[in-house]
Amino acid sequence: MYEDAEGTIPQVDLSPSLLARLLLERFLEEHQGSISSKQVLNSMLREPSLIPDVQLARHVEQCTINDCCYGPLVDCIKHAIGHEHEEILREKLRERNLSFVDENQLRAKGYDKTPDIILEVPIAVEGHIVHWIESKASFGDEHSHRTYLNEQFWSYWNRFGPGLVIYWYGFIAELDCQRDRGILLKDCFPSDIVTLGHSPDQC
């Protein structure tokens, strides 16, 4: 990409997408005399053809393609997988004839921060009342779960009551320690649901 004085490319301990972002930031700063907005930077990372330097645009595109963990391409893949699992959740609810309102309907009503699903009639799972369900198409590790608790789950609990989080790719068992406070963790759609006027569903 950029060679040093000896004509070799220095090794850096950065992901390809982060390296591309830093190089693009420096390029724009040098050519425009000011730091570009985050919106402009993200637009160029998503669409490298917007970058005025053709060679840099090619390098940025290659960084995006070759990064398996970060960057615009990975974000699109994660977004698609997330939507797929939200649809799986909706299908499971329909199969059980459970009445619910999803995130899109809630936002249309003016809610700004909502779980994926709010149940119009609460259910019980393993003896715990559930008013809402959040779908996470990821593995629940300690760092991400703590972040979700602080930024999402406790807000949902404050607004809507106790709820259920489904980590479709599993989670660290010790993290399921907030049940008595109203947040239950599962790695699949629960089979032992108790609905109003019904007995627990059997597997």
UniProtKB/TrEMBL annotation:
Any single GO CC term annotated in Swiss-Prot or TrEMBL for this entry: cytoplasm
An example Gene Ontology biological process: erythrocyte differentiation
InterPro entries cross-referenced by the UniProt entry: CDIN1 (IPR029404)
Keyword field: Cytoplasm, Nucleus
Origin superkingdom: Eukaryota
Compartments it resides in: Cytoplasm; Nucleus
Chief location category: cytoplasm
One Pfam family cited in the UniProt record for this chain: TPD
PANTHER family xrefs: CDAN1-INTERACTING NUCLEASE 1, SIMILAR TO CDNA SEQUENCE BC052040
The protein, known as: CDAN1-interacting nuclease 1
Gene from which the chain derives: cdin1
